[in-house]
UniProtKB/TrEMBL annotation:
Family designation: Belongs to the ABC transporter superfamily. Macrolide exporter (TC 3.A.1.122) family. Belongs to the ABC-4 integral membrane protein family.
Topology with respect to the bilayer: Multi-pass membrane protein
UniProt-listed InterPro entries: AAA+_ATPase, ABC3_permease_C, ABC_transporter-like_ATP-bd, ABC_transporter-like_CS, MacB-like_ATP-bd, MacB_PCD, Macrolide_Exporter_MacB, P-loop_NTPase
Organism for this UniProt entry: Leptospira levettii
TM annotation in the entry: 266-286, 524-549, 579-599, 605-631
GO MF terms, alphabetically ordered: ATP binding
Protein name (database record): ATP-binding cassette domain-containing protein
Alphabetical keyword list: Antibiotic resistance, ATP-binding, Cell inner membrane, Cell membrane, Membrane, Nucleotide-binding, Transmembrane, Transmembrane helix, Transport
Domain ABC transporter: 4-240
Entries under PROSITE patterns matching the protein: ABC_TRANSPORTER_1 (PS00211), ABC_TRANSPORTER_2 (PS50893)
Length: 648
């Protein structure tokens, strides 16, 4: 079986409008074990011929059999596998990876092709080319001759039956030239088929046969010595690497390239980093706002309905709320008799009051309500007790004070048992109210609570009440109830709808759903903002990946020459972009948590760090890495090996 059998092979390049023929109906046979030189002037098509033979390039027409196998119609994957297991390349420019040492460079093909104990084999090959003491040197620490010997060791690691060498001595001094030729002679003696392109007659003298090429045609052949016969082997085995051993190798390559370009990796991850910080803190803020609103509502009591008297229009003039007050204490019994769904109800009056304790003054709100106000509004005292119905009926001079009042008048000390002057009337403090926080409009803790009748008769001098506050049964829909209670009150007080919005009815359920709706809109906006910043981060990654692919075009070509499939290249670059983006995501997460913590500490904002937001940030950065890494990876994967190798 012939190693190489070429019939009528032609190739031309299209330059502008004219076809430019590089190879013109070449016929060539190379036996197994032969050492053949291809000679000819520069530009005669030698390299092109060698690249077609090495499956790095395609011919336009003609047939080509490599070890008896017709290869013109094979897919790029099969061609990669053949290159990986049957072919070794030696190039004029060595094509070593500059950041990897000699050993790593020699091992590179083992990434794609199954080679048992690659490191051992690589060390053995390096020893054979006399570099046993240079195993950990990087290319820039080696002379040209030594670099080419590394390349020869690399070509041999998969023990290929055939070696293609394109001007292997072209960049070397005369001493190194001879050393390299001696290596090739040694390989020839070991039984390798070698095809070498050269334009130096002294180098061609080492070969069995010289083929002279000119203008893309073989012009004559010169037999130097009779090729020695080697036992023919059937070259049909493929040793393509698969599964985890392939992926883990690619992962290591990606990690290596990312860590050897740390600054670049960091800079490209920066966009994602800020994006994730943004997502984390924004979502934490949103969650926090939601939580504090929810807390406020739960402090108000569930299913609470408040009726207030509003302004009454007369002749187009709107009267202030309270000017015409239409609610009175009798409404309480009337409403609870009429509406069984009202679980409890209290009339409420409000006013301002000047408080004096010892030599301290404080202007505060005073609220009067009945004894059930405690359970209606969740006002279980933190200190002392609530007032009783009896105290309310007796108009007792007792009060409960809110946190702000305690802070201002008592410097935070327990107020229970003391006497306080409210509008110059002396009251005994019987309890301290639980903290309710601020609604944003009003500090709910700046309040003194007294029994309803005490407030109306002894403090504020009111006949009418300001609010009716009631709690509905859990499953009662407030919507129906609101219209019913409005018409009931209109009927009772001889008013009607046309007189204006006299009874304003607010249900907490309604307000809560309105607030949570606003909250959702807010969250959506914030997420959109965070998404935009992550997208910008993704575009940043894509840019840098594209630059990196362009910069590493030659490396990509080399990997393909050594047996990498398109998918191997794609996966490697996808892993790189995903790892970059994940790194950004992770650092962003750490910074984000710090930011959240900082905001919480320094502004006292309610912030909730939620696991969904962390998961979201992570998922998003992986997705961004894949999406924005896709195009650069695809571009890299589709590069033709020869275009990549020829690029300078
Ligand atoms: P040699 O190796 O014998 O010096 P090559 O095989 O490298 O010659 O090139 C043969 C001819 O083909 C040269 O004239 C070169 O300019 C041309 N050539 C090579 N590659 C390309 C290409 N990608 N596009 C157009 N012309 C090319
Ligand atoms: Mg050339």
């Amino acid at each position: 079986m012939l190693a190489i059998e070429i019939k009528n092979l032609s190739k031309s390049y299209k330059i502008g409008n004219s076809q430019f023929s590089v190879l013109n109906r070449i016929n060539l046979e190379i036996k197994q074990g032969e050492f053949v030189a291809i000679m000819g002037p520069s530009g005669s098509g030698k390299s092109t011929l060698l690249q077609v033979m090495g499956l790095l390039d395609h011919a336009d027409s003609g047939s080509y059999r490599l070890f008896g196998k017709n290869v013109e119609k094979e897919s790029s994957n099969v061609l990669s596998d053949i290159r990986g297991s049957l072919i070794g390349f030696v190039f004029q420019q060595f094509h070593l990876l500059s950041k990897s040492n000699a050993l790593q460079n020699v091992c590179l093909p083992s990434l794609y092709t199954e080679i048992p104990n690659p490191v051992l084999v690589a060390e053995k090959q390096l020893t054979k080319v006399g570099l046993q003491n240079r195993v950990f040197h990087t290319p820039n620490e080696l002379s040209g001759g030594q670099q080419q010997r590394v390349a020869i060791a690399r070509a041999l690691i998969n023990d290929p039956p055939i070696i293609f060498a394109d001007e292997p001595t072209g960049n070397l001094d005369s001493k190194s030239k001879i050393e390299i030729m001696m290596e090739l002679v040694r390989l020839h003696e070991e039984g390798k088929t070698i095809v070498m392109v050269t334009h130096e007659p002294e180098m061609a003298d080492y070969c069995d046969r010289i083929i002279h090429v000119s203008d893309g045609e073989i012009i004559n052949e010169e037999i130097k010595r009779k090729a020695k016969m080697i036992p023919e082997s059937n070259q049909n085995f493929m040793r393509r690497k698969t599964g985890w051993s392939l992926i883990s190798g690619l992962l290591k390559q990606s990690l290596f390239s990312l860590t050897s370009n740390r600054l670049r990796t960091f800079l490209s991850a920066l966009g994602i980093l800020f994006g994730v910080v943004c997502v984390i803190s924004v979502m934490a803020l949103g969650e926090g706002a939601k939580k504090s609103v929810e807390e406020q509502f739960s402090s108000l009591g569930a299913n609470l309905v408040i009726v207030r008297t509003g302004g009454m229009r007369s002749g187009g003039v709107s009267l202030e709320a309270g000017t015409v007050n239409r609610l009175d204490v009798n409404d309480v019994t009337a409403v609870s008799r009429k509406f069984p769904e009202v679980k409890q109800i209290s009339a409420v009056v409000n006013g301002r009051a000047q408080l004096v304790f010892g030599n301290r003054n404080w202007n505060s709100f005073v609220t009067g309500a009945s004894a059930n106000y405690e359970s209606l509004r969740n006002l279980e005292p933190t200190e002392g007790r609530f007032f009783t119905e009896e105290e309310d009926n007796k108009r007792a001079l007792v009060c409960l004070v809110g946190n702000t009042v305690v802070r201002e008048l008592y410097e935070g000390k327990n107020p229970v048992g003391t006497y306080i002057k409210i509008n110059r009337v002396s009251f005994r403090v019987i309890g301290q109210l639980p903290e309710k926080g601020s609604t944003g409009f009003r500090d709910q803790d700046d309040v003194v609570l007294v029994p309803l009748n005490t407030a109306m008769r002894r403090l504020l001098n009111k006949d009418a009440v300001d609010n009716l506050e009631m709690e509905l049964d859990q499953n009662e829909s407030s919507e129906n109830f609101i219209s019913q209670i409005k018409s009931f009150l209109h009927e009772r007080h001889g008013t009607n709808e046309s007189m204006g919005n006299i009874y304003q009815v607010m249900s907490m359920a309604d307000i809560q759903s309105a607030v949570s709706e606003t909250n959702q809109t807010m969250s959506a906006l914030l997420i959109a903002l965070a998404t935009v910043s992550l997208l910008v981060g993704g575009i940043g990654i894509m840019n840098i990946m594209l630059v990196s692919v362009k910069e590493r075009t030659k490396e990509i070509g080399l990997r393909k020459a050594l047996g990498a499939r398109e998918s191997d290249i794609r996966i490697q670059f996808l892993i790189e972009s995903t790892l970059t983006s994940l790194t950004g995501g992770f650092v962003g997460l750490v910074f984000g948590i710090f930011t959240v913590y900082f905001l919480q500490k320094s502004f006292g904002w309610t912030i909730v760090l939620s696991f969904p937001s962390i998961g979201f940030a992570f998922l998003f950065s992986i997705t961004i890495g894949i999406i924005f890494g896709w195009w650069p990876s695809e571009y890299a994967a589709k590069l033709s090996p020869i275009v990549a190798l020829r690029s300078e």
